[in-house]
Each structure stands twice: as structure tokens, then as C-alpha cells.
Amino acid sequence: MTAPVIEFRQVALTYPGPPPVAALRPCDLVIRRGEFVTVVGPSGSGKSTFLNIAGLLDAPTSGTYLLDGLDTGALKDGDRTALRGRRIGFVFQSFHLLPHRSALENVTLAMVYSGVARKERRQRAREALVRVGLGHRVGSLPTRLSGGERQRVAIARALVARPSLLLCDEPTGNLDTANAQAVLALLAELHADGMTVLVITHDPEVAGRGARTVTIRDGVLREMAGTPR
Hints:
Blueprint: E1 4-15, E2 21-32, E3 36-40, H1 47-54, E4 62-67, E5 70-71, H2 77-87, E6 88-91, H3 103-109, H4 118-131, H5 147-159, E7 165-169, H6 177-192, E8 196-201, H7 204-207, E9 212-217, E10 220-223
Helix pairs in contact: 3-4, 3-5, 4-5, 5-6
């Protein structure tokens, strides 16, 4: 068995009141290296809370979250931020690209505080763009790219730090059908190459791309029957 990338041990998050709100109830979850897992649930179900905890944006109010075997609750804020930057790549529904910077510059900027030398940053950014099929668009501004190409730039930016986990929040939500299919095919390729992929979605078709699917409803996390563990 491969070591877990994500391990939740009775992880929960309750927002203080009055009255207190149990956004995520105590849950256990293990996602191992190289898995492709999708998380589904209606609006207000707790998906955003789950995403924020998994992405080290919020800390749980109880339980233990291990990321690559590290107890994230034992870390200081600065160490959590550094761990997030090294181990997690984020892809969001909105691309969050700087419109007056080229695709190469947008990806390179993700490494400004990484300690990587400037020359190596540009080389790694170029390699990441080639990896997502945009080697011919490195000098293009986001305003000259299609929605699918912009999302590919965002994926390249997420990959450039060579993370353990690619965490995607509704990655096809702003795309038409053709571009959505292209992005999903790219995620499948990354998974086939060994990347651990976790996708938050409300789209049943996107959810079906995962080897495992987890549901969240009213803050309760459950693995769907019939999905392999």
C-alpha cells in the first residue's frame, strides 16, 4: 500500500455561534498517492469547508489532519503556509491569471517566494506549460487565450512547484463542453502519470471521472457505495 497523501482522523470544523454551526462533522478519510478522488455534494453541504481544510487554508477545530504523514495541527502558521506552497497545487473555477502578464510569467510568478533561482523558475514554468500542451503559447496574454487554455495555464501554475496533491475546485465550471472535456482529459493524463488528484464538483459527469467518489451532505462525509477504497 502506498503512503497516504491525505489522512483525516475524526476531522471536524465547527464555526462559533451563537449558535455554533457544524460545517464538517467528525470524519475519517484516506487518499493515497496516485489516487483520483472526486468530492460531490449540494451547495451548502460542506464542500468548501472540506476544501479549505484539505488545502490548509483552514484548520479543523478537532481531529488530526496528516498531509504526507505530517501532522498539520502541530505546525506554526508560517510552516503551514510553506507546506501548502510545497505540497499542494490549487486549480479553481476562476482562473485567477494576471491579464497583463504572459502565460509564462503567470506560471513563473507562482515560484517567486519558493527560493528557486530566477533562471530555473523560467525553465520550470516553460516545462509546466509544455506539459499541459501550451508550449506554443508561452508568450500569450490570458486575454488572447480561450477559456480552456487559460485553465491549462492555471493547471501549469499549480504543477510548477511539483506538489504531492492537485486540489481542483470546480475546474470545469466556467468552461464550455469542449473545453471542459479537454481539461478533464488533461487531469486524467496527470493522474495516469502518478499525480494525486482531488476534484471538488457538483457535476455528475466530472464526479464520474474519479476512481473514488466521496459525498458531503449537511457536513457529513461518506464514501459512495461501490467505489473502491
